Amino acid sequence: MSRPSTAERSYPPRSMSTGAASAHMRSSLAAAAARPSPDRAGSSGDGGSSTRAAEAQAAAKAASRNAETTINRVTYKNSTIKALIDPTLPVADVIRQLCANAHLGVQEPPALFALRDEEDEELVDDANMARKIAAGRNFKLGSSPTIEAVEMVERLMSRDERALKLSTYNLQRLIRESQFRNEFLRRGGLDELVDITLTLNGGNTLAYALTSTQNLMESTADGWDGIKDGFVGKVVNILATQERINVCRPATAILKKLVLSGPAEADGAEQGRIIGDGEASGSAAAARTAPHAYRFGFEAVYHEIEKEPAFLSTLLQRLGSPDTTLCLYSLSLINTLLRHVTDNLFDVFTAELERLGVSKAVARLMDSTRGEELSSTIIEYQNNVIRVAHRRLRTPVTPTNQRHAAALSYIWLQARVTETVATEKDPDGNHSLPATPGSVGARFKWRRLGFENENVTKEFTRMGWLGLACCEAFVRSDPDAYAKIILEQMNRPAARRCPWGLASLEVVDILATHYDVDSGYTTSTAFLPFILFFSKVHALALHFFLRMWSESGASRSDFARVSALVRSQVKEALKDEVNKTWFDLERHFADSEYRTVRDRQMRELEVDDDFANKASIRNLRGRLYRESYEFVRQQRIQCLLEGAWFLTPQSSAARAAEPAPSAGGGGRASRAGSAQPPSAVPASTKPWRFYRLSPNKKYLHYCEATERSAIRSGLDDLPERIDLALVADVSLQPPGGSGAAIAAAAAAAGVAAGANLAFSLLRAPDVSLADLVALNTSQFSEWTDGLGMLRGEGGVVSTKETADYIQILTDIGMKVKLLDLTGERIEVPTSLPPAPLPVSTAFFFADL
């Protein structure tokens, strides 16, 4: 098939009415010489054309001084010209002059047109025109975003299957442009997009429609009134029934966004809202004018989830899927739901996740080869588990709570004992007759199970609902064994009985202290698989407590001594748990003998004072830990604000291009064919990039260079930027297949950077916004943890260096507090006093 002909013309600068206007025109657009073929575009044509091109180049240099003069092709329909474009001109002026050029044959007014990059269809604006001109990109003159929005809405209304597929495919890209988006929303485009989503049941068109909606929701908080109530239910249904990754990925992102858009988030809209293109970063009014964006939230989404019984179980099944991307999105959605669950649905939702066995599925991911790829998401789930435990720890047990009352009733009934009353002959109520409504004397019910008094809710004051839940889980794991334990203790002399209730709560306290549940979060960078099975570890430790009590012949006065033994064993058994299996943990608790544990405990007491385990000290450490974490967080973010140079891996230039939709449709989409564009940042052709966080902490600005040089403060030297709202994850894995490229780039740059210092800002698991290689481990730690803490999604600490800094600051703070070194009454001299004269001059000089 012959290639369509393209008219390639040169033209002289247009004359204007005034000399200044003529010079302005010459500096903005000039024709290059006609070429016989594209391969010889660099050679000169006739002398007149060469002269005019040279004059235009000189005029451009005079107008933009340091701007590099480059010839760019501009295409309109079947006509192409070569132009010298002044990068200092507004885009509107460039378009107006292009429309006035006779060789392009434009008949319509300039206001109807826009300039786009011919390669990636990106809209050319005042912010990126200079960069594209310098890069020698080719442009095309097309319809303005406003016209495209009008035509797009009309095509969406047609409901023609083939037209819808192509339209929704293009809409994914166009919806991110503010001019297009505003007109699209004004003309009811979101209503049509939602209707399309509600009517489709699968296929690429549904994937493109969902991705377009996702991009709209990520770009602005305006126009959400077009999202109907049935839309949330449809997205939930899609996730419960669809399996295609290009459909589930945007649906998951939409559902996460809806969870994050509740009434509780409206108050923080000014600080936390995503700033769209062309919006003022400090606009507080914009948040107040978008109430529809905050009418969803967790409760609205969970209401629809309850209507789809298979939803949560489907998410659980996907955690075991061989598709890593599907695992990542499913676990990320679970994390979002856990992090934003409301108070009145907290118990219901967390109980449902426990019933389904989500923690068990996450533990399998830790053990799989994909654990490293999903590490940040798994650690975030780990933090959510600790947050849930902290919430239960702070929830008081009350008899009016039906769930609490049911747990207490179950514990009592499964003990299979009767309530008794005390008599003169039997003051402890051990062998008295069962209590009756008319009985006189102290009643014994909960004390028979090993609690200190009959007001059992007071027993759980310290451990709260977490303590009661662990007691109930212990009983449910083996009711017969539990009844046997209670019966065995009741048959012993009162002084020799192990109080099961107190022992259970003590074990909960030991485990909560070990995992620092009281703080509500952890900065651990390692997997903690056993924290996911808190109640099961509690059962193992409680059995160990009962065994140590029997083997040591303990009495009630020895309770603290046995507790110390159990604390020592828990510390030993859970040490380096990432490298242990559940079988190893069971063996630690079941096979350890009393003498061995006691000897180890005595050695530990020589180097560790039990003083540190007191409640007041633990509370102090928890407070100092939070202060240290916040201090390091501010320090890391300050590093981002100062900026740093990074090596750019050469492999980042080889990113997959987004495939065009097939006319036939159907079939399972591959990852490369996902609905999102592969990158929002152009591939780097230079080895160095300088990155700096903007003062409003919304964007990461950068510039490229062939070698490192001094960068002024501020953002004037950093023309490019990455919207941090688009960053879904900070991956510590080097870009795929780039290990050799990183080593080669580091060698060429003369630095010792390696693949272990590489990290990526990911918009999706296979879509990288930027690939960075730090120059040393300190820079790697500062930026990876700084970006993670800045995102505010759990504040996961990714590197050991940052975790060590937090721990060191906490330890120093503890020592200062315990020693009470305030320095308030210490006078620091302003100068040193002169030294006194020597008492004699009989100096002795040694012979050297």
TrEMBL record:
Q: Does the keyword Metal-binding apply?
A: no
The lineage's top-level taxon is: Eukaryota
List the record's Gene Ontology CC terms alphabetically. Answer: plasma membrane
Record domain ELMO: where: 403-574
Q: Name one GO biological process term.
A: actin filament organization
Q: Where is this region: Disordered?
A: 1-66, 656-683
Q: Where is the composition biased (Low complexity)?
A: 20-66
SUPFAM superfamilies named in the record = ARM repeat
Any one Gene Ontology molecular-function term assigned to this protein's record? SH3 domain binding
User: Which InterPro entries does this chain map to?
Assistant: ARM-like, ARM-type_fold, ELMO_ARM, ELMO_dom, ELMO_domain-containing, PH-like_dom_sf, PH_domain
Record keywords, A-Z: Apoptosis, Phagocytosis, SH3-binding
- Would the keyword Cell division be found if you checked this record's keyword annotation? no
Tell me the function of this protein: Involved in cytoskeletal rearrangements required for phagocytosis of apoptotic cells and cell motility. Acts in association with DOCK1 and CRK. Was initially proposed to be required in complex with DOCK1 to activate Rac Rho small GTPases. May enhance the guanine nucleotide exchange factor (GEF) activity of DOCK1.
What protein name does the entry list?
ELMO domain-containing protein
